[in-house]
TrEMBL record:
This is NAD kinase. The gene is nadK. Belongs to the NAD kinase family. GO terms for cellular component: cytoplasm. The keyword Acetylation does not apply. Its main location: cytoplasm. It comes from Pseudodonghicola xiamenensis. HAMAP family: NAD_kinase.
Amino acid sequence: MTLKIAFLASEAPVAQAARVDLAARYGDSPPEEADVIVALGGDGFMLRTLHATADLSVPVYGMNRGTIGFLMNEYDETDLKVRLAEAEEEIINPLSMTAMDRQGEMHKALAINEVSLLRAGPQAAKLKISVDGRLRLAELVCDGALLSTPAGSTAYNYSAHGPILPIGADVLALTAIAAFRPRRWRGALLPKTAKVRFDVLEAEKRPVMADADSISIMDIDWVEIRSEPRVRHRILFDPGHGLEERLISEQFT
């Protein structure tokens, strides 16, 4: 059986050029008819591709033609079909975000990496945090906070000094961003099944925005976040260079 490949590329010239070369060499199928999707770009484009093709249940194999490539394999035009046949598959579930803004409008979005709350004004944000309906932190004064999946734990979460999570871990990382009070509160590890709610305190004086994989909601009142097991993203990696290995290696660099 002939392997049908769909090549998708970011707008970067180097990615577009790679798409032309690969399509000429291996053929190019529409994503809805493909056996595998090859995404050419960086991690940002990989996330957009996973979101855009989630309903197709087709595995996505990324090749780095961008500036950051934690989710990407090395770029090489040769023996692509052999690499695809030997690739190892990782399954990741996104986070589901429900946010209410101060105008009473409801917003929903999915996030593969993390959902973050960020102050949107000159003053620090004040957040109340509840987990599974139980109040856990009455007031967190901070620049923001985020809830990360294992797949996203090396991204913004790690930059905010959050923990790196093994890809198979059934936990989420709740991490503070520049916490002022409690000053030494660094966050928490929560079960994957947990439902986390952030309520914005003094929202008019201290406006806060919510972001789910670059989908931003301004002037929020509250946000609820949970893992979404019904959505399964299939990502392919070269043998020995899968997401599990990358997460471990990142902790020793």
